[in-house]
Design a protein that fits this description.
Length: 465
């Protein structure tokens, strides 16, 4: 969580130093990244976890790494060759360098996917976190250097040679590239510590297992990110689409704690589920994990919404007009995490095609909903469609799981906790006053009531310590 949190600390600086339309450019390019990174890893991480259960771990590691290294190298070369055409197609003909930089960022980051997966499978979280932390620290430092220090000392001779104000938001991308290069250089000893041979027969089996996950990931990412691209192209010019995209992107970042927790959970959960799949109580453990996952998501939801009067300063005031979407996005992110938990059944039972089916239904809802409602409600429609989409996907996945891989989730207790949290949020929302101190005092009491109630029901402190 620490590397992710440090990375998110750039948001206050970006929103204060960049205009809303410039931040919209940043949001747009990193939306493309979310799609392409799935394509470049093509499900091999999960394939690596799955095949390591039954096949020599080093052989699986080498096959997966060589595969991704090869495809990433080809990707970088092709994008560089066609960078001018790609830049024109994306309406960035004056910034061909963005295309080249992101080709390298994506390719290098994809190459590190399997080494990082190996750390997770081998239960080496400190080494995993160390390299992630190095990546983020380098990225943050160069962001600060280019966006804050250089403008302050633009008249200094040596800074003039490396800093050009017209690059603007491009320095965010360049800082990312520098961090990606540094990370893979630092990882080289660990990459080649294990055997990196290539087994073609094993590779074909891994690809057959992983490609449906890639397809499901791409379709699933439509649910998560396509709205940002549709805002650019589907809003009327009169409302300044890039400005609206910037406001939307900044307010999504306020849901930072939920996103951080879910990402941390996903890093740890998948290898945990696979490693314990053959245990006698594995299904019961999955159900318990789900319950506590939702509990902590509800803590985050109430924590952020209760202290919104303070947390809103995470972004610049010129973005505050979009604050109303934050509670919706928090719930949507929680639903996405629940969906991730539910999908474990088709990964453990090797029925990954169901992931593609459910994600496709979600993608249809997301595209159709955004297409119809963005012109009417703008980014508010996008936020609510996220929530509706994930709720539908949860329902379908749970129903399919009951038929094929039943897991005894404590549904009544989970429903009770969710309803109680939503009731408390409703009270905080409708009892809001102009007095910030009074709001914080009242909300703190309500939040404490929820925490104490959960502790009474679950004996959390006793279980943690």
């Amino acid at each position: 969580m620490i590397p992710r949190f440090l990375n998110y600390l750039l948001v206050p600086m970006h929103t204060r130093l960049l205009e809303t339309a410039e931040y919209g450019v940043n949001t747009e390019w990193y939306t493309y990244v979310t799609f392409l990174v799935i394509l470049l890893v093509y499900g091999m991480e999960t394939g690596f976890f799955s095949f390591s259960r039954t096949t020599d771990k080093n052989k699986v590691y080498g096959t997966a790494f060589v595969s991704i290294f090869t495809t990433s190298t080809v990707f970088i070369a092709l994008v560089i060759v066609f960078s001018h055409s790609i830049a024109q197609w994306l309406d960035y003909s004056n910034h061909r360098e963005y295309v080249v930089w992101f080709a390298w960022i994506l390719g290098l980051d994809a190459m590190t996917a399997i080494p990082f997966a190996r750390f997770r499978l081998d239960n080496r979280p400190l080494r995993f976190a160390f390299y992630k932390l190095c990546n983020v620290i380098i990225n943050v430092l160069f962001n600060v250097f280019f966006l804050w220090i250089c403008p302050q000392f633009a008249d200094v001779a040596w800074i003039k040679t490396i800093y050009h104000p017209e690059v603007g938001v491009g320095y965010i991308f360049l800082s990312n590239l520098i961090a990606s290069v540094a990370t893979i250089l630092l990882l080289l000893p660990d990459i080649f510590r294990h055997k990196t041979g290539f087994d073609f027969v094993l590779w074909k089996r891994m690809v057959a297992y992983s490609l449906p996950l890639m397809a499901a990931g791409l379709v699933g990412n439509i649910n998560e990110a396509i709205d940002r691209l549709m805002l650019k192209y589907h809003l009327p010019d009169s409302v300044l689409p890039m400005k609206q995209l910037g406001i939307y992107g900044a307010n999504i970042k306020i849901a930072v704690l939920m996103s951080l927790f879910i990402q941390m959970f996903r890093y740890a959960a998948e290898p945990f589920f696979f490693n314990n799949a053959k245990e006698k109580d594995s299904q019961k453990n999955i159900a318990e994990v789900m319950k506590y996952f939702i509990v902590f998501c509800l803590f985050i939801f109430l924590g952020v919404t209760s202290y919104m009067d303070v947390i809103k300063y995470f972004i610049d005031p010129k973005y505050w007009e979009g604050l109303s979407i934050v509670p919706v996005m928090l719930l949507a992110n929680m639903c996405l995490g629940i969906y991730f938990n539910l999908t474990i059944w088709f990964k453990l039972s090797n029925q990954t095609r169901y992931g593609l089916i459910v994600s496709s239904i979600g993608a249809f809802i997301c595209i159709a909903g955004n297409w119809l409602l963005i012109p009417v409600w703008g980014y508010h429609a996008s936020a609510w469609i996220h929530l509706v989409c994930y709720a539908v996907m949860i329902s379908i996945t749970w129903w399919l799981g009951k038929q094929h891989y039943p897991i005894p989730y404590p549904l009544k207790r989970i429903a009770l906790y969710v309803v109680f949290a939503l009731v408390l949020y409703t009270i905080t929302y409708f009892s809001k006053t102009e007095n910030i101190t009074l709001n914080l005092f009242k909300n703190t009491i309500l939040f404490a009531i929820f925490v104490l109630y959960i502790h009474r029901k679950e004996k959390l402190l006793k279980k943690i310590f």
